[in-house]
Amino acid sequence: MRIDVEQLAWMAGSTTIVSGIDLAVRSGETVGLVGPNGSGKSSLLRCVAGLRTPTRGTVRFDSEDIRGWSPRRVAQHLAFVEQASDADSDLRLGDVVALGRTPFRDRWRGLSRADRIVVEAAVERVELAGLEGRAWKTLSGGERQRAHLARALAQQPWAVLLDEPTNHLDVKHQLALLELLAETDQTVIVALHDLSMAARYCDRLAMLHSGTLVASGTPEEVLTPGRLRDVFGIDAEVGTDSLGNLAIAYRSPA
Q1: Listed GO molecular functions (predicted)?
Q2: CATH number at residue 144
Q3: Which residue segment(s) compose the domain that 208 sits in?
Q4: Model pTM?
């Protein structure tokens, strides 16, 4: 699925959160959204996911304006993974993952055998097999985050949007999640704090600052010392590590 964002703006009351965003994401591409806290990454993702209506501009899936799509049709094509919630729930882990099949079944029909196979595969893919019966309130933050990812995988979407999905995850599962996203043939837009991981696992990056898109391109094109200083307020050197990956060395503030 190709995603095109055209002159998108969104306001909360009288406050402009994002403005003038143009972003084209090719089918099968992984694009990372980077920027300081409050730069508009989450708001942009929610507009693309159809969870917020842009004040101006359009979002197109394969050239179709999603304003003409029903919520059910959006959910059949796109999955959104937000930052893990700490809210209690009486659901079990397996119940949460099974919610990913909701857009594809009748309201009063339970999971089919085919649905259960999809759910089981998603749970196994995020290394949670055997925990399906665990109560949601007993899970750690990392387990909840992986369960949300499994729910998105169970949707079998054409595109996946993720808002800081590595929060609450240990290093092993951060790497496993980003490897999974890099290897999928789905279109992926992911907001990330860790610039080195964004550079390693994303095909392209889009850098936001104060609600505007200030740079878009390959990690090498976007993560320059000048932009890191201007956007993040840090002094850094950008080079490559022993494995040939882009590496960022931060200087301590004076």
Answers
A1: ATP binding
A2: 3.40.50.300
A3: 3-250
A4: 0.93
Overall domain count for the chain: 1
Q: Which two tokens stand for residue 170?
A: 């240990």
Tokens of 229: 């200083």
Phi, psi dihedrals of residue 102, rounded to the nearest 5° = -55, -45
Phi and psi at residue 4, to the nearest 5°: -120, 125
**pLDDT tens by residue, 92-125:** 999 999 999 999 988 777 889 999 999 999 999 9
Residue 102 is which amino acid? T
CA distance 152 to 48: 16
* Integer CA distances (angstroms), 95 to 32, 102, 147, 223, in order: 30, 11, 10, 40
Which amino acid, residue 253? P
